[in-house]
């Protein structure tokens, strides 16, 4: 599966439609407390960085599966969006255009 953030030029492809993946995940309460204390003293908050990375990958995998069901062998124009749903909860949305090359 070809995944790209750009729109393909000089390539013949059929546009199959919009595909997306969306996930919301929460940090374990113990990790949330550790992140709170790290926030007080400064520095990298690995708990949230790891959470965001895992959620991003799961959302991306979900989008790829949706594209495969449409018969796509590529997704172009991929973009990610994230937001904080509540304290310790991250939402990641990834979307793009499913194509068949």
What does this structure look like?
With 101 residues, the protein is of the alpha+beta class. The protein has a single domain (2-26, 55-100), classed as 2-Layer Sandwich (Translation Initiation Factor IF3), CATH 3.30.110.70. The protein contains 2 helices and 4 strands; from the N terminus they run ββααββ. A 4-stranded mixed beta sheet has the order 1-3-4-2. The longest helix has 24 residues, at 46-69. The N and C termini lie close together (10 Å). 17% of the residues are buried.
**CATH fold type:** Translation Initiation Factor IF3
Structurally, how many domains make up the residues? Answer: 1
Radius of gyration: 17 Å
CATH superfamily: Hypothetical protein apc22750. Chain B
Summarize the structure.
By secondary structure, this protein is α+β, with helices and mostly antiparallel strands. Helices cover 37% and strands 40% of the residues.
Annotation keywords:
101 residues; alpha+beta; Translation Initiation Factor IF3; four-stranded mixed beta sheet; 2 helices; 37% helix; elongated
Topology, element by element:
Layout: E1 2-3, E2 14-26, H1 29-41, H2 46-69, E3 74-86, E4 89-100
Parallel strand pairs: 1-3
Antiparallel strand pairs: 2-4, 3-4
């Amino acid at each position: 599966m070809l995944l790209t953030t750009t729109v393909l030029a000089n390539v013949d492809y059929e546009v199959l439609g919009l595909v997306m993946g969306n996930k919301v995940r929460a940090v374990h309460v113990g990790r949330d407390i550790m992140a709170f204390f790290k926030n007080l003293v400064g520095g990298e908050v690995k708990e949230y960085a790891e959470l965001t990375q895992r959620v991003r990958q799961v959302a991306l995998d979900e989008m790829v599966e949706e594209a495969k069901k449409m018969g796509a062998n590529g997704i172009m124009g991929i973009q990610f969006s994230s937001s904080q749903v509540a304290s310790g909860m991250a939402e990641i949305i990834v979307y793009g255009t499913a194509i068949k090359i």
